[in-house]
Amino acid sequence: MRVYMGQLDTPVGILEVRGTEKGICSAQFVNQRTTGTTNHIIKDCLEQLEDYFHKRRKIFTVPLSLQGTDFQQHIWKGIMAIPYGKTITYADLAALTGNAGAARAAGTAIGRNPLAILIPCHRAVGKSGKITGFAWGIWRKEWLLKHEKKEPA
């Protein structure tokens, strides 16, 4: 199956999106620009992400092609239910997804999220509300949370 790709310059770095005709399978921050072939799903995803960064979008509607264990996918779907501008603790997420007591495992699943922003793992925080772990850097997580708390201009 052919993989397509596109990149978007964001306030927190270059976001590279990869996917197939079925959906988006990766959205990762990268250090340098590259070129690749896009398709309609990639173009739509980049437009939706652009809208997110300009506060014109809170929910993404592009199809996703998730690759992960059943547990990971269950946690990722749970985190997608957390509203824009809100946070949830890892323990509360574990309980919400029917895995009470599995906060650490939920955190590990979130850490393996391949879809930055589309699966908003930046909305998961430590038990005390402390901003903890983010695969793409704590500073990005802090920025994204502040971005979602601010009112549109």
Describe the fold and architecture:
This protein folds into 2 domains: about 5-55, no CATH class; about 70-150, Winged helix-like DNA-binding domain superfamily/Winged helix DNA-binding domain (Arc Repressor Mutant, subunit A, Orthogonal Bundle). With about 150 residues, the chain is an alpha+beta fold. A hairpin with a 4-residue loop joins β2 and β3 (about 25-30). Helices cover about 35% and strands about 15% of the residues.
Features:
16% strand; 5 strands; 2 domains; Arc Repressor Mutant, subunit A; 3-stranded antiparallel β-sheet; 153 residues; 35% helix; globular; alpha+beta
Low-confidence segments: none
User: What is the straight-line distance between the termini?
Assistant: 42 Å
Number of domains: 2
Beta-strand residue percentage? 15-25%
Instruction: Tell me roughly what share of residues is in helical segments.
Output: 25-40%
Strand order of the largest sheet: 1-2-3
In DSSP terms, counting alpha (H) and pi (I) runs of 4 or more, how many helices?
5
Mean pLDDT: 93
In the CATH hierarchy, the third-tier topology of the largest domain is known as Arc Repressor Mutant, subunit A
Secondary-structure-derived class: alpha+beta
Examine the secondary-structure arrangement and name the CATH architecture of the largest domain: Orthogonal Bundle
What's the CATH class of the largest domain, please? Mainly Alpha
C-alpha Rg (nearest Å): 15 Å
Q: What would the principal axes of the Cα set say about the shape?
A: globular
Biggest β-sheet strands, sense, barrel: 3 strands, antiparallel
The CATH superfamily of the largest domain bears the name Winged helix-like DNA-binding domain superfamily/Winged helix DNA-binding domain
Number of beta-strand segments: 5
